Amino acid sequence: SYELTQPPSVSVSPGQTARITCSGDALSKQYAYWYQQKPGQAPVVMISKDTERPSGIPERFSGSTSGTTVTLTISGVQAEDEADYYCQSADSSSSYWVFGGGTKLTVL
Amino acid sequence: EVQLLESGGGLVQPGGSLRLSCAASGFTFNNYVMSWVRQSPGKGLEWVSLISFTGVNTYYADSVKGRFTISRDNSKNTLFLQMNGLRAEDTAIYYCAKRDCIGTKCYSFDYWGQGTLVTVSS
Questions:
Q1: Is B60 in a helix, a strand, or coil?
Q2: pLDDT tens track for A87-100
């Protein structure tokens, strides 16, 4: 199997910048994706292919990558951004998909 | 509009079986790789299984390998998950998810259903 590691929680005040990291051995070879999930709802993809923002996703959401760590950055956090965030990728052989453990973003 | 509608969840005893279905609409079903993802109560997302465009290739998480079988009927635009030997730890919401594919290259899980709840308990 394969694992992705995220911090369990991140807290920021409105208007500040939130950064959520995700680390995994194959992240230098495989794309990472970020999903937002609010209570009672299905996940929504926020960042695709490490850095691409799908249509309809606010510009304050961005992704970056460095070696085996990827980062989701939310600039100018708003109250509505409070949610669980999951990174997702695949192992180096593209035969096993995995989600990180999730990070609960709290907007203070 | 892409729609994924799961069904088949419910209460089942340990060791029992259940078959989940996911009815897809709004896109050309056989042009996309499909997957099942689950979420236990209060826990994170867990990838369960994935199936290729034609159904020839299937992949499973270690936690379900040998017990679950993914399949698809492209003529009926439907994805399935046959779950046998169910355990308490299989209790979860099961989501059907479509992959974002361009030709044979696939990327994120770009559309999700609302999920169906499976409860394994005596």
A1: strand
A2: 999 988 888 999 99
Of A1, A43, A100, the CB nearest to B112: A43
Q: What six digits make up the tokens of B6?
A: 């799961």
Take residue A105 and report the two structure tokens written for it.
Answer: 């973003």
Give the best residue of A34, A45, A86 to mutate against chain B (max B CB count within 10 A): A45
**Interatomic CA distance for residues B108 and A45, integer angstroms:** 7
Cα atoms in the 13 Å half-sphere on the side-chain side of A103: 27
**Across the A/B interface, how many CB contacts are shorter than 8 Å?**
55
Residue B122: how many CA atoms within 13 Å on its side-chain side? Answer: 3
Of chain B, the end-to-end C-alpha distance in Å amounts to 40
**B39-58, pLDDT tens digit by residue?**
999 999 999 999 999 999 99
Tokens 């999700």, located at residue? B112
